[in-house]
Design goal:
Radius of gyration: 24 Å
Number of strands: 19
Strand content: 25-35%
Number of helices: 3
Shape: globular
Structural class: mainly beta
Distance between the termini: 56 Å
Order of helices and strands: HEEEEEEEEEEEEEEEEEHHEE
Length: 362
Amino acid sequence: MESRRPDGTHGRRRHRQTLAPLLAIGLLATALVACSQPKPADLHIALVPIATERGTSWEWTPECRVGPRRESGCDPGGPAVGAAQLAGNAWNLGGESTKGMLRMAVDDTGALKVSSDLSSAPPCTKADCIAPQANTWVRSFPSVLYGIDQCNAATSPPQSPSLRLPVQVESLPSLIAATTYNVQAAQITYDIGYDLWLNPSDTKTPCRTDGTLEVMLWTDYAQQSVLPESMKVGTATIPFAIDGVADAGYERWSVFVSNVFHDGHTAPWGGTVWLVPDAGDRVARGTVSVDLGAALHAVGALLERNYGWRNFASKYWLDTVAFGIEFGPNPPDPYGDGPAPFTFELSAYCLASRTTTSAARC
């Protein structure tokens, strides 16, 4: 409200003159505080090429679903190589070892080759399985993992000082992920993409529970792997680039949801959100970079809008960023036991901030 003098003239000028020194002091104080705050460091975490363990290979079987097999028994978790963990994650693989195995190997260039010679890939239905009645075609998700191995934190790799997980979503720096890969998987059901795990706390030992959220962001997939239309809840805008060519990704990602309920609740083992690019944006071979920060923002907005979740960015913590391939037999029968042969070569994988999808390089 403007003040008036007794003569009816405005007193705005005097008012401004009185406030000017105070405003100057306030601005100076703000500038000094800003200068004293540490600026977020540039983030560039190279996970692949793998700098060590070249020429080494690891094998997962129906008996060794979490850690690779060794001469006697199974390792407790996937091997840590630098800041990465090679996670076989054969969580739903049943059958007999005589029917083949999943293998991860590092070649002389540091690239990772993931392959399967499984002549039969039935689901895991034993009592010690993670989900004896999972009702999905997925048998395994071999991946390169950064962060915390869900429900198996003790085996997690050492993290880079520039990105310590878990981290609050609202405190997450702009996060671009870039990968270069080639897949040959014509005979199986599969998808390639990121697996992001989030929890409503900063626990260092996260495990699937009510409120746990899994966000899967695909970059390639077989058409038969697409989720049913009844699970689709909308579309999302997520910037990406293919071979250096940027795309704003405006409503180019379909959003599917399962086991997510109102007010922050999920199924007892967690809920899942899938972000699936349009068929024309699938990449079976090449370099793909995606704005993971924008993806999490889109997920949070959808959960708040559709399910009444509140303050997603301040209440949720990112635990894990993994990239790999989900696979199973074709046709995608949850209880099928068909073969699952494929080869997936990952020659680059990195996380970066203060860059763009088109400029991100590993």
